[in-house]
Amino acid sequence: MYRWKLSSQEPCSMTCSIGRFKIPYLCVRVLLTLSGVSKSFVTCIRYDGIEVHDMYCDSLTKPEPVHDFCIGRECPPRWEASSWSECSRTCGEGFQFRQVRCWKMLSPGLDSSVYSDLCTMADLERPVERRPCKSPACGPQWEVAEWTECLAKCGRKAQVTRDVRCSDETRPCDLMTKPPNIKNCTGPPCERHWTVSEWGPCSGSCGQGKTVRHVYCKAPEGRVVPENQCSAEDKPLAIHPCGERDCAPHWLSQDWERCNTTCGRGVKRRLVLCVGISGGKFQTFDDEACGGSEKPEEENTCFERPCFKWYTTPWSECTKTCGVGVRMRDVKCYQGRELVRGCDPLTKPVAKQTCTLQPCPTEPPDESCQDRPSTNCLLALKVNLCSHWYYSKACCHSCRALRPPTS
């Protein structure tokens, strides 16, 4: 006895394959799957289940094979990189850039950029996006440091300076292109005011006894600011003579002010007064009244932290001639002539920025063009991709009906 038997289905006819077309820099959110056909086949078997030749079974009763749609295996993601840009500098050492994106085939004829996490989770090594490049050696260039702090009193004007030097000590830079090393600055608003604490206890008798209080310079909102933002002429005394008996005029030194530089060697000052107590009241006298003793020094040298300064070179040319590109410059930290790492990273000038030029010209559509056979233009129309430059060109014939009429 022989009979026909429908076997299990064959593997899906569609497997993942990467086409030669993509949608550059376009992220499609509609996730499509690869579909194919899975076909079952018919065999002739004996009563004991052994498969035999089809001639033993009745051909008139042979069933038709079943065709079902099936989903092929999912395409793996991959990294793809654009071509390298031009060197960021036309001379000397610079950098080249390229865009690296994660791509994945979402359906036949639809290859799209996707989130980078897909390639990262697949443990794919990401191609480098920046590499050094070297052009012919540059001539000497001007390098500039950051501007010094403005030391102007409130409401007053002063000047700030910066170091400007030539990058090559053996060859002179062009003096016509030398950046300025001095400019005007204005002090803070005069709403700043002095605030004092209560006087502390007296330390002894007159001539030896002193009482101390804290003196702050504050902004209107109550924030303590550097003392140079308040008027030095109106600063209240922080140290005062005290005692139970009167005493002759003598020198009284106030606390040293802050060093007048933020780095390197500078000058600090303090107020020295000829004072005394007469009739239980504090009095100030002319310096001659204290002439019997040597007046303490009112000015002295001071040294803050070593001067670490950021230096920058001029900006390079833009990496593009139209559209949006990138320009670069070197940013280095120096202490004197030594290249160091002590500069404040929070004040580091930017080394790269975008440069926006006029829009790049576009070619008018070719009315006689044809759709590319390798592109699934029917799917492009279905998911509304004609606005993208790649599909508007690859499917120009199919997309032509969607273009607005030209006047």
Would you give an account of this structure?
The protein is mainly beta and 407 residues long. It has five domains: 2-134, no CATH class; 142-186, no CATH class; 193-303, no CATH class; 309-356, TSP-1 type 1 repeat; 364-407. Helices cover 5% and strands 35% of the residues. It has four helices and 29 strands. Strands 1, 3, 4 and 5 form a four-stranded antiparallel beta sheet that branches. The protein is elongated, with a radius of gyration of 41 Å.
The percentage helix is under 10%
The major beta sheet can be summarized as:
4 strands, antiparallel
Number of strands: 29
Spatial gap, N to C terminus: 79 Å
Beta percentage is 25-35%
Low-confidence stretches: 17-35
Label the structural class: mainly beta
Q: How many separate structural domains? A: 5
Rg over C-alpha atoms, rounded to the nearest angstrom:
41 Å
Mean pLDDT figure: 78
Overall, the morphology is elongated
Total number of helices: 4
